[in-house]
Automatic annotation (TrEMBL):
It holds the Pfam family AA_kinase. SUPFAM superfamilies: Carbamate kinase-like. This is [LysW]-aminoadipate kinase. It catalyses: [amino-group carrier protein]-C-terminal-N-(1,4-dicarboxybutan-1-yl)-L-glutamine + ATP = [amino-group carrier protein]-C-terminal-N-(1-carboxy-5-phosphooxy-5-oxopentan-1-yl)-L-glutamine + ADP. GO terms for molecular function: kinase activity. Its EC number is 2.7.2.17. Belongs to the acetylglutamate kinase family. LysZ subfamily. The lineage of its organism: Bacteria, Thermotogati, Deinococcota, Deinococci, Deinococcales. Coiled coil: none annotated. It comes from Deinococcus navajonensis. PANTHER family: [LYSW]-AMINOADIPATE KINASE, N-ACETYLGLUTAMATE SYNTHASE. The gene is lysZ. Catalyzes the phosphorylation of LysW-gamma-alpha-aminoadipate.
Length: 267
């Protein structure tokens, strides 16, 4: 079992990712794809007159402040345009993909955080009306049902709260929770950089290997959204996933290259 998470930032070649996935799927591999959509969500939110608001926690993690209107835009893009665009690509390649959000069948479930602590102008503020959370439970039964029937699951946030409310969750950490729950052999976190860089944005400073027990020691090299990827990698290896690879989704055969060790390998 391999869980592949592809990000939503500029420069990602979804055609390359889907073509590579399709070839491996037809070769008999069990795969699940999780995707993001942050770049397109930002563009649509701006166009709709409700621009994105990003907040930084006291511990240095950046996330999207998700009020109800932002959540609805998020669902339009992640569950609609991005998810169905990827499913269509896979269908055209002969793969019977099924696109679902974490809300569907409570595939991803967690606690709803109504408020978030954020640092603004040097002060810590409490912002209310947030619709975020962290995946704490995965409906593996539904995923296994799809896989056993020959369908490739294509999953995306949001998740469901325990009360059934849609919540924005980090896609990398959701993919990590999925990989742990399914006892996956590998988790691939593909984005628009070649891996974790020691000196961002210098791609020649790629960190090729990270020992499984030392992942959090490398957090200092992670910039912006890469912090959540490193955190997700730490959670995955702690949960028993044998390998986590930060790979490049911009061209070529992104899945195959990552599985062959291109990028940053955590093991």
């Amino acid at each position: 079992m391999i869980v592949v998470k592809v990000g939503g930032s500029a420069g990602i070649d979804y055609d390359a990712v889907c073509t590579d996935l399709a070839e491996r799927w037809k070769g008999g591999e069990r795969l699940i794809l999780v995707h993001g959509g942050s770049g397109e969500t930002n563009r649509v939110a701006e166009a709709l007159g409700h621009p994105p608001r990003f907040v930084t926690s006291p511990s240095g993690y950046t996330s999207r402040f998700t009020d109800r209107e932002t959540l609805e835009i998020f669902e339009m893009v992640y569950c609609g345009k991005m998810n169905k665009g990827i499913v269509e690509r896979l269908q055209r390649l002969g793969v019977n993909a099924v696109g679902l959000s974490g809300l569907d069948g409570r595939i991803f479930e967690g606690r709803h955080k109504d408020s978030v602590r954020a640092v603004e102008n040097g002060k810590v503020k409490v912002l209310r009306g947030d619709h975020t959370g962290t995946v704490e439970r995965v409906n593996t039964g539904l995923i296994e049902l799809l896989l056993s029937a020959g369908y490739l699951p294509v999953l995306t946030p949001p998740a469901a709260s325990y009360e059934g409310v849609a919540i924005n969750v980090d896609g990398d950490r959701a993919a990590a929770a999925l990989a742990v729950a399914l006892k996956a052999e590998a988790l691939l976190l593909l984005s628009n950089v070649p891996g974790l860089l020691r000196d961002y944005p210098d791609e020649a400073s790629l960190i090729r290997e990270i020992p499984a027990g030392e992942v959090e020691a490398y957090l200092g090299f992670a910039q912006d959204r890469m912090k959540k990827k490193v955190l997700g990698a730490a959670e995955a290896v702690q949960g028993g996933v044998l390998r986590v690879i930060f790979g490049d989704a911009r061209a070529g055969q992104p899945v195959t290259a990552a599985l062959m060790g291109a990028g940053t390998v955590v093991s």
